[in-house]
Amino acid sequence: MTERDVTAVAQLRLAAFFEGTGRTLEEDEAALRQLLGGGAFEAAYVARIGDVLVGTCLMVRHELEPAHDLTPWLAGLVVEAGHRGRGVGIALVRAIEAHALTMGVETLHLYTWEARDFYASLGWDTVEVFSQDGETMVLMSRKLGS
């Protein structure tokens, strides 16, 4: 992801994850810019079809504090509805996994509300099912390089 992608990525993320939460476009843009400026460990990837941004995924140090004291996290995977089912999400997950490996990460974690079967099909294991703010969440992990 580059600076030119920040607004489009923030718009995707707001629609997918933050609708009704009060989080603003400006807040998410600021968080994404902070991630971009934070060094090589954390990462933000985008998928494009031609020049159109159709998806994004992040690797971050911290996620959903204080639910679990684990790091790092695959976070924020979202693909535009019209482009789902075409392998975009799989490619983004694999890109984050590859990045994590280059950073020396042995185990990557994620939370999901609805996509447990998708991640399981990619080799992710369910670690725990729990409730966060009244929502059923699934903590999953993947040992990399195996």
Helix and strand arrangement:
Elements: H1 6-18, H2 25-36, E1 43-49, E2 52-60, E3 73-79, H3 88-102, E4 107-112, H4 116-121, E5 125-132, E6 135-143
Antiparallel strand pairs: 1-2, 2-3, 4-6, 5-6
Considering the chains and any ligands shown, give keywords for the structure:
alpha+beta, Aminopeptidase, three-stranded antiparallel sheet, GNAT_dom, Bact_Acetyltransf, acyltransferase, transferase, Acyl_CoA_acyltransferase
Architecture, CATH level 2?
3-Layer(aba) Sandwich
The CATH first-level class comes to: Alpha Beta
The tally of beta strands, per DSSP, is 6
With strands numbered from the N-terminus, the spatial order across the biggest sheet is 1-2-3
Through-space gap between termini: 27 Å
Helical segment count = 4
Q: How many domains?
A: 1
CATH superfamily: Gcn5-related N-acetyltransferase (GNAT)
